[in-house]
Amino acid sequence: MFPYAHVQLGQVIASRYRVEEKLGEGGFGSVFRGTRLNDGAAIAMKCLDSELQRNAVASARFDREIEILRELTHPGVPRVLDVVESDAARLLIMEYVNGSSLAGHMARDAPFALHRALHIATQLLDALDAVHLAGVLHRDVKPDNVVVGPNDSVVLVDFGVAAWRDAARNADLTPAHTVMGTPRYAAPEQVGGDAVDARTDLFSVGVLFYEMLTGERPFPAVTAQGTAIADSTMPPTPFAAYRQDLPDALERIVLRALAIKPEERFQNCAAFRNELRGLAVLT
Ligand SMILES: Nc1ncnc2c1ncn2[C@@H]1O[C@H](COP(=O)(O)OP(=O)(O)O)[C@@H](O)[C@H]1O
Ligand SMILES: [Mg+2]
Questions:
Q1: Is there an atom of ligand 1 within 6 Å of 250 CB?
Q2: Which of 93, 118, 133, 207 has the most CB atoms around its CB within 10 Å?
Q3: Superfamily of domain 12-95
Q4: d(CA 275, CA 272)
Q5: Mean pLDDT lowest for which of 109-113, 148-152, 167-171?
């Protein structure tokens, strides 16, 4: 049936939610800010467009995103409020985070003051710790998927390519090793299509943290596709090339997060976060 309906600004969905503003556009639909009509609360709505609902992979991924988000209850992850169907889309209604993406903040302000980078990184690690403890791998940690709210509070969003760590739970539509994430933030094992685990997400935090501190990407290696990826023959550029005010201990922490071999990285979020906390005491 053509043309397919699309979610429109100003539209009222299921008599309950009004679409107010587009926040982002992905492969499978868009994300909007909306209003819950009964109480005027702001909500976020992630849509699977009607034309994709017959795409088995897109549809199963969307369902898994909802299933995963429902199991996460942490202030650093948006809560699921509702799931609704309309002519135009299937919609995940979630808590709206009043803020804007870390990517935008970095484009404006990076390199960040050390205390700000630490404040953001430790909160991100707290949220990711809760994700991992729930048995979930995010697999696409990057500045676009981090929303920074009032007082630099941090919420990790976009579980669109997240998976259960226990591969048997993943239906086999998207086994743990088939999603590449975003090359600039992806660990070598993820780019290489090998098995990923919590340490893979921690590598992505390492790239993001390095970028907050320097304003530059850690690995200058460029592929034929023009993307920077981690390359075992080229270590990250030392902080001293960009700024002089960072403690050596911080550089050791970031290099450990960015180790090519997973066994040389922090083994879990808590270990990484505790090192940063120790540093925050000194600064
Ligand atoms: N709950 C939310 N509250 C506020 N903004 C959000 C929320 N969820 C997503 N966003 C914003 O919308 C953008 C797109 O959402 P995301 O889930 O990343 O979808 P995509 O699959 O299109 O990348 C995000 O980069 C973020 O800026
Ligand atoms: Mg995203």
A1: no
A2: 207
A3: Phosphorylase Kinase; domain 1 (3.30.200.20)
A4: 5
A5: 167-171
